[in-house]
Specification:
heterodimer, A: about 160 residues, mainly beta, 7 strands, about 40% strand, B: about 60 residues, three-stranded antiparallel beta sheet, two-stranded antiparallel ribbon, 1 helix, elongated
Chain lengths: ~160, ~60
């Protein structure tokens, strides 16, 4: 047997729950360090004409959709399933579809931004899809299978 | 009954159009209801297939 240099898989999952802190970072209090609360994540929709990408650092209303039934900032993400690991990958997926009910969004949109509304609206991830409009209807974003390699967020 | 821009309407009064898109990024279905040439309802459901992967960290620290 020999030792093998690697990033510990458990560490990748722990990153997603803020289990490690290598430098100083400004955080909104999680109430208790021994029994911390889970942050709240939200999902905002963006126009096809917006510029949301890997360089996006936080939620912004610039380029966000607007219309009847849609509240700026989007909707809360259901997060009932904690990040976990599989193989050498840490991963996480919202535990329910993102559903924007009875909205009218007449300008084409093609992006959803997942962000941490507890921690100063810091950006988490950007997901794109074919342009859509909604008229007095419901827009549903169904999540991929929550497994290594297919989950919405993967750290390999 | 269907929610429309004119309120709730009987589905039988409306023309229904449906469609789907299936590619490597998504599987999307949509349904539209039209009344006398006017779009009065459109809903869509997007199943995301494409995820985001952070493998640079491992590559740098491995």
């Amino acid at each position: 047997m020999a030792n093998t240099q690697a990033m510990c898989t458990s560490f990748k999952g722990e990153l997603l729950v803020g289990g490690h802190q290598f430098g100083s970072v400004t955080l909104v209090s999680r109430t208790s360090l021994t029994a911390p609360t889970t942050d709240t994540f939200k999902a905002a929709l963006y126009l096809a004409s917006a510029t949301i990408n890997a360089a996006t650092t936080a939620y912004s209303a610039t380029g966000e959709v607007s219309g009847t039934g849609y509240t700026a900032g989007g909707i809360a993400v259901t997060n009932a399933t904690a990040p976990t690991t599989g193989g050498t990958t840490g991963y996480w997926t919202p535990s329910a579809s993102l559903v924007y009910t009875t909205v009218t969004l007449t300008t084409a949109f093609d992006t959803v931004l997942i962000y941490n509304s507890t921690q100063s609206n810091k950006a988490v991830s950007v997901h794109t899809f074919g342009s859509q409009t909604i008229t007095a209807g419901t827009f549903t974003l169904t999540m991929p299978t929550n497994a290594a390699g297919t989950a919405l967020l993967n750290i390999a | 009954m269907i929610q429309t821009i004119h309120g709730m309407m009987e589905e039988s009064l409306l023309e229904k159009r449906e469609g789907a898109i299936d590619n490597e990024n998504e599987y999307t279905t949509w349904v539209e209801y039209w009344l006398d040439g006017e779009l009065v309802h459109r809903s869509a459901a997007v199943h995301l297939k494409k995820n985001v992967l952070a493998d640079g960290i491992a590559a740098m620290l491995a």
